[in-house]
Input
Amino acid sequence: MTSFETGLKETASAVEAALSQRLADENIPAQLAEAMTHGTLNGGKRLRPYLVIQTASLFGISQADAMPTAIALECIHCYSLIHDDLPAMDNDDIRRGQPTVHKAFDEATAILAGDSLLTLAFEILGHKNSHPNPAIRANLVTRLAKAAGAAGMAGGQMLDLEAETKTLNEAEIRRLQLLKTGALILFGCEAGGVLAGASEAELANLGRYGKAIGAAFQIKDDLLDIESTQETMGKAVGKDEAAGKATLVTNLGPDQAHLELDIQIDKAISALEIFGTRADTLCDLARYMKSREK
Amino acid sequence: MTSFETGLKETASAVEAALSQRLADENIPAQLAEAMTHGTLNGGKRLRPYLVIQTASLFGISQADAMPTAIALECIHCYSLIHDDLPAMDNDDIRRGQPTVHKAFDEATAILAGDSLLTLAFEILGHKNSHPNPAIRANLVTRLAKAAGAAGMAGGQMLDLEAETKTLNEAEIRRLQLLKTGALILFGCEAGGVLAGASEAELANLGRYGKAIGAAFQIKDDLLDIESTQETMGKAVGKDEAAGKATLVTNLGPDQAHLELDIQIDKAISALEIFGTRADTLCDLARYMKSREK
Output
């Protein structure tokens, strides 16, 4: 394991501890709390919270101070997985090697657990623990809602479902992916700057970094879907092809997709130049987008 | 139509105009936008936004200034109806006399439309249009998230689903209803005070009013479910009894339930005494909780 991967893993443990603490609320009906926990504390990579924590650390903000925003973002990501796995959506039985929430419980509970995690993200961000300055909290709330909503991630999922019955061109695939996975990753990268009250120029560079690694993440995901196995991934593979879904990989071919992956990683790294060596870990993260095996 | 009902209807029109304007966003995929509109602009009474507007007006806040908070609350209410109607939940085909969202579109679209409206509520509240003071916006975000989340409305829906397979006692029924419908109504009543920076004493009285009319609303709903018709209600009736769901009406019997309804309305009106004649409309609203026919 590289030192980057060790760091990612350590952060993942801290994120899980914070999530676990936040989900322990005796006012939540027991079955709903269990389903929220099942859909959250299941061994994800915690890439999105890692982005918040690392971009915040560029500006000297501690992991503890970035953690509420980090876990709010992870709540949104986990809710989206729970709902995407539902029979009416992608109909997946296995996620991270475990039964999906609607398999472990039932569909109604999975819908409510997703709704509850989505709502919890905003409860966390609105609370003064996420930042002492309410203007920054309100800014984060609006940004995360835009990233997750109908003109962001949820809209991307809508386009993804439509893609099962129609053929998308390259521009349409890029739009879909920018919304479906790009928007939350972009939020994660900008969030550190927002927490720090960064300058417009700094935020713009974080945004360029976020867009590039979001694109790289998705290309790698689509490559893994054709090149990896269910055993390694902990979820079904080959599903895009089976469902007739166009991705950049099917559209450009694997060789061109690998090339595009390299280009995006270079873009991501060059966007961080203004931060100098402080951004070394974020550069490692960009390279990890290519090297990761699941 | 009484002058109270005329006022309620006028406000509903203004709420619908504001919702319609907010949903017209060309960045939202077309089918998703249509489903969100179908689930929102369908002739509801708009009681919850009316509560926000009327409690804000107690403190001299204009309808226009209260409107963003009012429509954020209505987005949450409409999302909850879309998800509650799903086959895995209450499995309803008709709502407000129209096909439910999953019947007019499909289940996946209904899930995403609900998710999107839930998210939009927080995008609206976080934005400076909802109040110039970010501390008040962040406060509203946290309060609404608590009211709607796992220890609020979503938790109540979980208990409601569980009630189909187990028998609840009176205390359990009251807890369920406090969460499932009470929490959002309470938010609507307190929101006007929060927008105005009201005193603790004023907020406490708004809270007493909110709890009482929330309880009255639910009792009346359960009475209508046994006393009214699908034609009048625009949705299926007699469903609680058919599903074996305990309500205060089945638990106490209709006579006792009517008595309890009167008690809650008296409580609501007495909580408004400190506001004098400024609260006349809110007192009319409490009485309307008993007289309404759907």
About this structure: Chain A has one domain: 3-291. Strands of chain A lie at 94-95, 98-99. The mean pLDDT of chain A is 94.
